[in-house]
Write a structure and sequence with these properties.
The protein has about 950 residues and is α+β, with helices and mostly antiparallel strands. Helix content is about 30%, strand content about 20%. An eight-stranded mixed sheet has the order 5-4-3-6-2-1-7-8, covered by helices on one side. Strands 12-11-13-10-9-33 form a six-stranded mixed sheet. Helix 11 packs across helix 14.
Length: about 950
């Protein structure tokens, strides 16, 4: 009975690895690798309805005592403290039970001592010792089971190839551990299909990066597959890949990566997100940039100075080579100083400048209040709207947690947007019982000191997306609190005065759909809160994207456009606003001054997210590092997506970051939100340095810079020699580059960090030049990027760039750039004729337009306000603003209204002109003022004058 219970438990634990009955091949291969095997032999034979699988390795073997202590026990492993081992949990061997063997035989011969052999039946009830037949150190495992189909041999071969084809040895980095099946090798090198690929070995990381039709990432730990996803960034945020289907549009980076120091979880399906995994990500991105540089250099060569710059920057990215980074940094500093001294010296004034004040060291940890010494958990947090508090007014919340990983702990959340306050707490929040939770993994144990009075509720800090496990609450004091949920925040409520330590456990909340009323509240923008046009336009554009990309675009916009500033001057400006400008919008005020701290910036992002239909709220709490809370409070945004809460932080530093600018801190009106002004010259900077000293300083500095730069470049080139580029010359590099650009436009997240494809001038223009995708995107955002599929008319001038979409390989790229405009459509709106004789079938329309222009000129409009065109647009009346489009065409007005001569409505008016020309002219002008934004503001005046003209019978 005991053996049957052991089998049930062992089988249940083996199911952690999945329900694949062949997973034992991976686990036995892993054990063989950890035992120092240099080859693995697997055989499968079928005879008389019985399948026999033999797994043989030439590792160190093990003694009978070692097997009894570790192999034949659960959760016991001799490799727990060995970071180089692939298996350290004491469960993997018993995955053989998933194969349902009728007979299991184990033979092992250690390097020192006698070999042993043990046979057991599939129920683990009958055991028999035998004679070890191994003649050299190693281990052999034989499994037998009934199998009616001989095709089971092929199933074993496919399973072995799936799990073990990239297995690596334990004693030699990146050396394959050969695996043979029935005498044929299963081992294969890392490779990916596609037009080009770069195989590399970089410290503890190896792999290959290439280009494929769909993004793909395969991650191996010590040669064993542990993770598969689409994007490299998915390795950062979650151990599980995002459930998103990526369309096959262009080319995207694909990876096969292997880390010899990665730490995996018990189920072998995810990797611990630590510095080793971060190293894999950095290495993969670095070699992606290297692949693109080497592949595209033949198509679009980089100048020598750019190549040298890229080489030095790549060398600086080698984070593990700190000496190399120091040398390169010293070289750059010496070069800058030497050049500065050589040209006559420069004042080494390291104070903050007037235009770009220096950022505070902890810009992302902005305190929201002005707490006193220490922040008791029960101290009321008086939040009167997103404001700015000066530097130096911090306190620390007496809070500790484990495990000690970086985390943001929320203590409050604000969901109501306010015209004057920006964001405020809801006044109608009612408490409810907290959500029942249990800790199934990734939990946090938290303890905090508190001092409260009777009837006071204390918010319990938890990370975004977490809740308090009710049964875990512990209180070291005289009165035990009860738990209530206020708007998703769990509070401890005390019935009488209390002082002590409250401890509890935080666990991830299950996915839960928000009630309709709550969802409306998280999307509500009050009618009196109006977004400025720029913010509204960006939010509306982001609304077309998927929710994560909406959040990313808005957060990045706020980070860049609003300066992080906690200076005393800016704090005084916010104080005056809240005390004086009672009838002014908080949002308009913030956009006008363009600066604020974390709660200000995230409150702006919150408003834009709601405009973009993202349910969100402002969260306030503390930042945790090394198991304790840091000083002050911090704010961020929480948004609800796919039934879970997620965090986003728009703090950053913005275009500049200001430290406390005192000396003028008197709260006077002279304090400027743009930073301090220093007009007087520093008296401590010499105006006439010693020229001999400057000359020799320049010579020495430049010599040191050249030597160190050469050493850094040599080290980089030696490192780059460990990678090999393979290309498919059957495919044109121009075609591949075009597909790269299409992929970068369609799936920007897949190309994040790749660099080269965005900055390389690959997009052809009609001028015979080429521009980069990054520049094209910037021009498109400004409305200065066009594309054409026809021969370009050189008479079209102006501040614009026109891409050549007639190029057969790039014809599908230009129209996909967001904001790029079709020049062919605009050309169709150009006046086709200025003389009636050349108007052809559209002569009646030409007469009507000429008469309408005559009447508009009488009313003060410029000549040629209306123009006949043969456009193919559905709209019969279209405004043309060449000035706004950055285009100049000789002979054409800068602004005019195009009348589509072939449109059905225009033709009907032309038919009317045959019987009553005046009425037809009135009808044409009436249609024009109705549909033209250029004339609509004058619609009443035009219609009144035309009506009077008809009454008088004028022509």
């Amino acid at each position: 009975m005991r053996n049957k219970e052991f089998k049930q438990r062992a089988r249940a634990e083996s199911l952690r690895y999945g329900e694949d009955s062949l997973v034992f091949l991976r686990e036995l291969s892993q054990n063989a690798r950890d035992a120092g095997a240099r080859r693995i032999l697997v055989r499968a034979e079928w005879a008389a309805g019985k399948l026999t699988v033999s797994f043989d390795d030439d590792g160190r073997g093990m003694t009978r005592e070692h097997a009894q202590s570790f192999l034949f026990r659960l959760y016991a492993s001799s490799k727990e403290d060995d970071a180089s081992s692939a298996g350290r949990f004491g469960v993997g061997f018993w995955s053989v039970l998933l194969f349902e063997p009728a007979l299991l035989r184990i033979e092992s011969k250690p390097e020192v001592g006698r070999g042993w052999c043990l046979e057991m039946d599939g129920d683990l009830t009958a055991f028999r010792e035998g004679q070890c037949r191994l003649r050299r150190p190693g281990t052999q495992v034989v499994l037998e089971r009934p199998e009616p189909d001989p095709r089971g041999i092929e199933t074993i071969r496919r399973g072995l190839a799936r799990y073990c084809r990239h297995l690596r040895r334990a004693d030699r980095a990146h050396a394959p551990l050969p695996v043979f099946f029935n005498g044929e090798t299963i081992t294969s090198p890392f490779t990916v299909p596609g037009p080009c690929r770069l195989a590399f070995e970089d410290g503890p990381v190896e792999g290959v990066v290439g280009l494929g039709e769909s993004p793909n990432v395969e991650l191996y730990a010590k040669g064993l597959l542990v993770w598969r996803g689409a994007l490299l960034d998915e390795l950062r945020y979650s151990s599980e890949p995002a459930t998103q289907d990526y369309q096959k549009d262009g080319l995207s980076p694909v990876y096969k990566l292997n880390g010899s120091r990665l730490n995996v979880t018990l189920d072998r399906r995810s990797v611990v997100d630590d510095k080793q995994l971060a190293r894999v990500r950095r290495t993969a991105r670095r070699h992606t940039r290297r692949l693109l540089a080497r592949y595209l250099d033949e198509l679009s060569p980089r100048p020598a100075l750019i190549r040298l710059r890229d080489a030095l920057l790549a060398g600086l990215e080698e984070g593990r080579q700190k000496i190399g980074m120091g040398l390169a940094g010293a070289a750059l500093v010496a070069a800058v100083m030497g050049m500065g001294v050589l040209v006559g010296g420069f004042p080494l004034d390291l104070r903050q400048s007037e235009e770009l004040p220096k950022a505070p060291a902890l810009a992302s940890r902005s305190p929201l209040g002005a707490p006193t010494e220490g922040l008791p958990l029960g101290k009321a947090f008086d939040f009167r709207g997103p404001s700015v508090d000066p530097l130096g007014q911090m306190g620390r919340l007496p809070l500790a947690y484990a495990p000690p990983r970086p985390v943001e702990l929320r203590t409050a959340a604000f969901e109501i947007l306010d015209f004057h306050l920006g964001v405020r707490r809801a006044r109608d929040e009612l408490g409810s019982p907290p959500t029942p939770l249990s800790c199934a993994g990734d939990c946090l144990d938290i303890a905090a000191e508190t001092h409260v009075v009777a009837g006071q509720s204390v918010p319990l800090p938890v990370p975004t997306g977490y809740g308090v496990v009710p049964q875990s609450l512990r209180w070291e004091g005289s009165a035990r609190p009860s738990l209530l949920d206020f708007g998703g925040i769990t509070h401890a409520v005390f019935s009488k005065d209390a002082r002590g330590v409250v401890s509890y456990r935080a666990a991830p909340l299950p996915a839960r759909t928000l009630p309709p009323a709550r969802l409306r509240r998280l999307l509500q923008i009050p009618p009196d809160v109006t977004l400025p046009p720029l913010l509204a336009r960006l939010a509306d554009q982001a609304r077309k994207e998927k929710t994560p990309l909406r959040v990313e675009k808005i957060v990045e916009f706020v980070r860049d456009r609003i300066i992080y500033d906690r200076s005393a001057a800016t704090a005084a400006i916010f104080t005056r606003f809240f005390s004086r400008d009672l009838n002014r919008s908080w949002l308009d005020f913030v956009v006008e001054i363009g600066r604020g701290d974390c709660d200000v910036k995230n409150a702006v992002a919150l408003t834009m997210l709601r405009r973009a239909a993202v349910p969100s709220r402002l969260a306030i709490g503390v930042i945790g590092e090394d198991g304790a809370a840091t000083e002050g409070f911090h704010a961020w945004v929480e948004y609800h997506h796919r039934s879970l809460w997620h965090a986003a932080d728009a703090t950053g530093t913005g275009r500049a970051a200001a430290s406390d600018p005192s000396p003028d801190d008197g709260g006077g009106d002279s304090a400027s939100p743009r930073g301090p002004s220093t007009s007087a010259r520093d008296p401590f900077v010499s105006a006439a340095p010693d020229r001999d000293f400057l000359f020799w300083s320049a010579v020495i500095s430049l010599a040191v810079a050249v030597i160190f730069s050469a050493l850094g470049l040599l080290a980089f080139l030696r490192r780059a020699a460990r990678s090999a580029l393979t290309t498919d010359e059957r495919r044109s590099r121009t075609e591949v580059a075009a597909k790269m650009l299409a992929g970068a436009i369609a799936m920007p997240n897949a190309w994040r960090g790749a660099g080269g494809i965005l900055t390389r001038p690959l997009l052809p223009t009609v001028d015979g030049d080429a521009i980069s995708l990054r520049r094209a995107s910037r021009l498109a955002r400004k409305g200065r990027l066009w594309f054409t599929r026809r021969p370009f008319d050189p008479s079209i001038r102006g501040r614009r760039v026109v891409l050549d979409a007639a190029d057969p390989e790039f014809e599908q790229v230009a129209p996909r750039i967001p904001g790029a405009q079709d020049l062919d459509e605009l050309v169709r709106l150009f006046p086709q004729s200025k003389k009636r004789e050349a108007a052809g079938a559209h002569a009646p329309v030409y007469d009507l337009v000429s008469a309408a222009n005559t009447r508009l000129e009488r009313l003060g409009f410029p000549p040629g306000t209306l123009a006949v065109c043969s456009c193919s647009r559905e709209d019969c009346i279209t405004d043309v603003d060449l000035a706004r489009a950055g285009i100049e065409v000789p002979g054409l007005p800068r602004r005019y209204v195009a009348v589509c001569a072939g449109h059905e409505k225009v033709q009907k008016i032309a038919e009317l002109a045959r019987t009553n020309f005046s009425i037809a002219t009135f009808a044409l002008l009436d249609l024009t003022v109705e549909r033209s934004a250029l004339l609509s503001r004058y619609a009443e005046k035009i219609r009144r004058e035309l009506a009077l003209e008809l009454i008088r019978g004028d022509r």
